[in-house]
Automatic annotation (TrEMBL), chains A, B:
Pathway where this protein functions: Purine metabolism; 7-cyano-7-deazaguanine biosynthesis
Ligase as UniProt keyword: yes
Binding residues for ATP: L12, S13, G14, G15, L16, D17, S18, M19, V20, T21, A22
Cofactor binding notes: Binds 1 zinc ion per subunit.
Keywords: ATP-binding, Ligase, Metal-binding, Nucleotide-binding, Queuosine biosynthesis, Zinc
Residue sites binding Zn(2+) per the record: C191, C201, C204, C207
Keyword Iron: no
GO BP terms in the entry: tRNA queuosine(34) biosynthetic process
Annotated GO MF terms: ATP binding; ligase activity, forming carbon-nitrogen bonds; zinc ion binding
Cofactor annotation: Zn(2+)
Protein name: 7-cyano-7-deazaguanine synthase
Reactions the enzyme catalyzes: 7-carboxy-7-carbaguanine + NH4(+) + 2 ATP = 7-cyano-7-carbaguanine + 2 AMP + 2 diphosphate + 2 H(+)
Amino acid sequence: MSESGKIATVLLSGGLDSMVTAAIARESGFRLHALTIDYGQRHVRELKSASSIAKKLGVERHVTLPLDLREFGGSALTADIDVPKTGVADDIPVTYVPARNLLFLALTTAFAESSGSSDLFIGVNALDYSGYPDCRPEFIASFAETARLGTKQGVEGVPFQIHAPLQHMTKGDIARECIRLSLDPAWSWSCYDPSPQGIACGLCDSCRLRRKGFAEARVADSTPYAADTDD
Amino acid sequence: MSESGKIATVLLSGGLDSMVTAAIARESGFRLHALTIDYGQRHVRELKSASSIAKKLGVERHVTLPLDLREFGGSALTADIDVPKTGVADDIPVTYVPARNLLFLALTTAFAESSGSSDLFIGVNALDYSGYPDCRPEFIASFAETARLGTKQGVEGVPFQIHAPLQHMTKGDIARECIRLSLDPAWSWSCYDPSPQGIACGLCDSCRLRRKGFAEARVADSTPYAADTDD
């Protein structure tokens, strides 16, 4: 039950991390609003998962905003570049979308401000840091300060708070949270490159990290996969 | 002529300020890319001006990105709220669009990063500060730091520089710059609420500030207006 009636504005991609983040916000007593960005990603299946998660978690207002980043190019997630399937590398991956979290946090701020919500929830976590600069805690903190300075809500005394409850969790921790919160993993979608039949490939970075997480946590992932990794 | 071949990525709304900003970037030796956001603003006439300015200034890549902020609501520029015509007030105006410049700068950063440009140009100026928090210099500086932390380009050593060449100019200064740079004021569009025939109203905040600027600078504004102010 919400004691405060405060609204959490959740950036809900439809992936495992954002599903668990939304459920944590709800458990903390927030009412839920959610924003999903349809940015021309190859894995549109994620958008269906976002809608279904929003319904299951009782989100009061869910907006799916079209934003065609293919106009800009530059990422394997939106352009015609092959998604790698040979394993997770250490550098910034080709699936990096230019300034994505900067953009998505800005959109979440605009959405939150328009409905008077000052609590933003985003599912970035420890494992994302190495590859994606826009997942690092110092970026998130700097964004919060920028949003405070650049919005009516920030200036008039209700600064935005950016909650990243998975920040220090591994994928294993997140898998455990998923089960603890009674969420079915298969409601969420992680795969960057599903089969034509809509089955998760099992081999892209995102599938590999997800499977490793459930394996580490020794809990079952109910998601079917098209192929097994050789890890 | 460009000595460096460096690209300036200009946020080009189609208004007077962004036109003058783009011309200053060109004069400084940059090649021009421009981003226009079609955010469901009432004054779509501005978008036509942006295209025409881009052609006249020799912009090499001009993207007009649809982004339907009407989904969020909350501003007289995108929602069904009357645009005030009785004069410019001191507080944050109803034409404030939630987190607009935060969002537009984030989009400009994403566009710039996708084409390897690290110089962003935005037409904010002194007169905007009082009303719009997202035009203040401390916001722009904080945004630059956030973009540095949250992008591949920033992390790998080519931080974004945000140029706001009109920052300390009044509307009068901008009108003078417009003439000095041989730009026709009527290429640009400022009115928030044009007549059905597409004539600038002359009475909204944006028309009032523009007319005041040209009057102060004692230079002619070639734009036709539907009504005269009683100032």
